Amino acid sequence: MKLLLHCCCAPCSVSFVKKLRDENIKPRLFWYNPNIHPFTEYASRRDNLKSFADAENTELVLCDEYGLRAFLAEVYAKINEPRCETCYRLRLEKTAAYAALNGFSAFTTTLLISPYQNHDAIKCIGQEFASKYKVEFLYRDFRPLFREGQSLARAKGFYMQKYCGCVFSEEERYQGNYENKSNI
Predict the structure, then answer these.
(1) Cα(145)–Cα(183) distance, integer angstroms
(2) 137: Cβ contacts below 8 Å, ≥ 6 apart
(3) Cβ–Cβ under 8 Å, residues 184 and 75
(4) Range of the domain at 136
């Protein structure tokens, strides 16, 4: 299987890539995360993913677009859709389109390792873009590997973020209501 793996950060990639490699799948990593704010956070996550890819001798495709304005415009244009779903759509569509254009048989995302993400929405959106771009969406519940991946990432010295990445989740982190992250 020629797999394109959308990566949100190095910590979420560690166990995900290890599990795929255990199955003889060597994914190509794909960075596209216009939601991450501020720019220093974006750069830290991107650069740590580069370090991870280098350390694992894994190819990384950087779609290096700091897209705060475009992300916010998309969220506000779809005010009736939960913002996380808008974010998933942005990232998964770009991943699926790249996969289709570059001969991948499947795509997936490290968002599937996080217990903090909406798996049903990710699966549904992934399947939607799989159909649109004629490339398989590999869905698996990688959440049981989350804690192990976090421990491995800490041991390897990767930057460990404290919030999902968007400006709204950063605000919620400091206001103490992170559980209500699906609304603006």
Answers:
(1) 27
(2) 96, 106, 107, 108, 123, 126, 127, 129, 130
(3) yes
(4) 3-180
Q: Which amino acid is at 143?
A: R
| Backbone φ, ψ for residue 71 (5° rounding) | -60, -50
Q: What tokens does 20 get?
A: 């795929």
Torsion (CA) 80, 83, 88, 90 in degrees, nearest 10 = 80
Residues 96/130, Cβ–Cβ less than 8 Å: yes
CATH of residue 170's domain is: 3.40.50.620
3-state DSSP call for residue 177? coil
The residue behind tokens 């808008």 is 86
**Total Cβ atoms within 10 A of residue 151:** 13
pTM higher than 0.85 for the full model? yes
**Which amino acid makes up residue 141?**
D
Give me 58's structure tokens. 């894994």
d(CA 83, CA 8): 16
Number of structural domains found in the chain: 1
Amino acid present at 4: L
pLDDT digits (tens, 9 = 90+) for 48-93: 999 999 999 999 999 998 989 989 998 988 887 888 999 999 999 9
